[in-house]
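Protocol step 4 of 6: record predicted structures for both targets in the notebook before any analysis. Target 1:
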Amino acid sequence: MPPELKLRNALRGIAARMRACVLVRRLVVCLVVGAIPTLLLIAAGKTGLLFKMRLDYWPLWYSFVPLAASAVVGIVWGLWGHISDFQAAHAADEALGLRERLGSAVVFANEPPQRGEMLPALLADAAQHCDELDPRKVTGPLFPRASLFVPAFGIILAALWFMPQFNLFATEHEMHEREALKQEGKELEDLAREIEKKAKEANLERTERFAGRIESLGKDLARGKLGKREAMKEAAELTDEIKAMHRELAESSEVGSLQEALANARDKKLNTGEASRILDDMAAGDMQSAQQRLQDLQNKLQSGELSESEQQQLAEDLQSIGESLQNSSAEDLGEAMQQASQSLQQGDTQQASEDLQQASEEMQQNSATQSLSEMQQLESLAREMEFAEEEMSQSDCEGGT
């Protein structure tokens, strides 16, 4: 084997061993650094200190995040950089006392001197010293003494992890109470998401904002960030705001006018179940359901499912509802229903279907119908919040049982 090739092979072996040593040493350093906060977090969780500090809203296994992050950093740091042939040669010269034989050979091989006859001799001498060159003698042991900390920390971590909960900073009663509040928080989150979704679909901005605040309160409860007294105070304040907004809407003239008109319409005798159900939905503030029923009527008219007599009965009902809505805050909706009634009486089902579509759009855009719908949603939301307050107040009793 040519001397130059023998030298490079030997240096590659030394460089590989050096890279492995660098990786192990840097990984050990990072693991030791990451194990310290992991140990502290697990110990704090097992003794109830995290509970006392209200930092227990994450699962305990999240304590291993610093250790995992340090392992990733250690691997990246260990693989970072490159060890050149000269660095490997210099390390071998230093470790084995070769008096720069390998380093000089590498330098002159990369930058041949003017007297080229020296290079073969340098390479031959360096190659001769590479015959029994052991990379382990150059780098020393792969695992440094500090690596003993890793299994030691591992044993301590395992002991802490499997140790039973030993709450020095919290009583069992406090633990039960916190768990009850967390459960109530999760239920509030689910309720708020459901209401927020419906409010967004119905374009009820005020209800959507309140639902967002309830969801935020639920998250704080579910994570244990709030104590019972603080949670009940926030819930009570939020309930009062919802009730105040409900009263404001209920006392508004446009809602009052619409409610009076709907009450007059319900006093009249209607011939069809479809019209009665639409009226009931509107009176209950469920405009989405009422719009869906109008859509169903459109489909029935377009498909010819209604007989002539059924169409005439429906026309009479729509006329009756439309007349009741005249001179109210939903006058445009009433006009659309009366127009649909006239189209049905004339036998023009296509035009009647378009008129019903116009009525559905008026129902969605009319500020009075939107306010009535929002008022009913807020009333339901206030009841839910009162129920949540009651559950929170009883969490104390449940925790003590």
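Target 2:
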Amino acid sequence: MDSSVAPDLVDPFIGREIAGKYRVLARLGAGGMGAVYRARHLGTTGDVAIKFLHGTAVGDEHAVRRFQLEAQNVAALRHANTVRVMDFGVDQGTLYLVMEHLVGHPLSDVLAREGPLPWRRVAHIARQVLKSLWEAHEHPKHIIHRDIKPANIFLVDLAGEPDHVRVLDFGVSRALDSSGAGTQGLIGTPFYMAPELWRGEGVDARTDLYALGCVAYQALAGNPPFVPPPSATDSLYPLLNMHLNDPPPPLGQVRPTVPAPIAAWVDRLLAKEPGRRPASARIALEALDDAVASVDAAATPAPPLTTAGSTPAAPAPSDTRARALPVWIVVAAVVILLGAIAAVVIAVSRDGPEPGPHTLADATRPAADDGAPRAHALLGNLVFSYRARLSAADHLDEDGDPLDDAAAVITLDRRRYHAGVGDPEDGFDTVFKDDNMQAQLYQLVAGTIDEPTRRAVLDGRPLIEIAIYERGLTVSVVPE
């Protein structure tokens, strides 16, 4: 130990021998319930993690017995997505848990470093958490976690399996419930606590599912569903009111790239009443798999939209523009858009539109040539196009902060246009009114916009042209 370090800065646990079996080597981190250290097993010489629990009432025999029973229950869990508890006990007045030593990062650190994650990655993580909860909830002792949060979801990169999940701290909340170790009288973390926990009611598997819904929402949107306003001097009362009474901001508006089935799955987990949530982790896992399958089914390529009597154009060689995607990816993405609008399209015959309502193409196609070619060598015939002046308001998010995502700027322009606050130079179109279509527009633009156009959109207020073809989309800046 370095004698130059001031005594009040020396960690008393480092170098300490625990129960004659472990030597504490280094502090790994700390949380609301305790501090975690890396330690060496003196018999096997292998590394373990030891968690010393804060505020434990070791003088209360009932509390110590409760802790021992909970630790025994959790030690019986064997799922690959649950951290292994190997030992537990009391040493010099402090309760401790010995767990396997993991190398990786808690989800909380990943979110702080990377921000919102792709929805497939979030689904991959959530599936593993649900598997861990499935075993615990259906254990004979019905083990409820009660503190699911990003800090308790640990990500390990195994060979061939990135983002392998280990759920931490099973049973610790319940063990501490009668030991006096709760924070501010609450068992759980306020950002992720279900309404029944705030009300002091009984909890069950659905309480953990609500917390997982809060975690999934944060991983997708960048923030938990409920965040006190910056002016709040105390966060607990605003959070209590929000969790009990307020709906979360719709994911489709906060993060338009999240597919509707995935957003609906998260909404179901966040239901205020437990009876409206999935009844178990197993059912929630099945619902998540169904949601992912429905997204994949919607992306399955279908015959391209063509005018009556026309022949689909043959695929052309891959586009070589900077940042362009392979043709099959572009085609698959565009089919999502065209498939969604196909229900409102009335085919045009060789001699013109059939009597009755105009076709979508006719309703949106400019009367005069505005620069968009009527056919594209790669993408086929033009379906419609529009022009839009990107204003300063299009470049700001709902908090007034600048957007750094060109696709989001273009999508916001359409949202403002349909809300009646668009810009005078915006072209006429009726296509992107609903949230689902705007989300698809975002995905298509994000997948096809090239770097010079992206930079022009973010750096200025250009007049842009969006052209939708039979098998693709182009974004361009109109020269002025």
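Step 5 preliminary note on target 2. The chain has a mean pLDDT of 78. The chain has three domains: 7-100, 105-298, 327-477.
Proceed to step 6 after PI sign-off.
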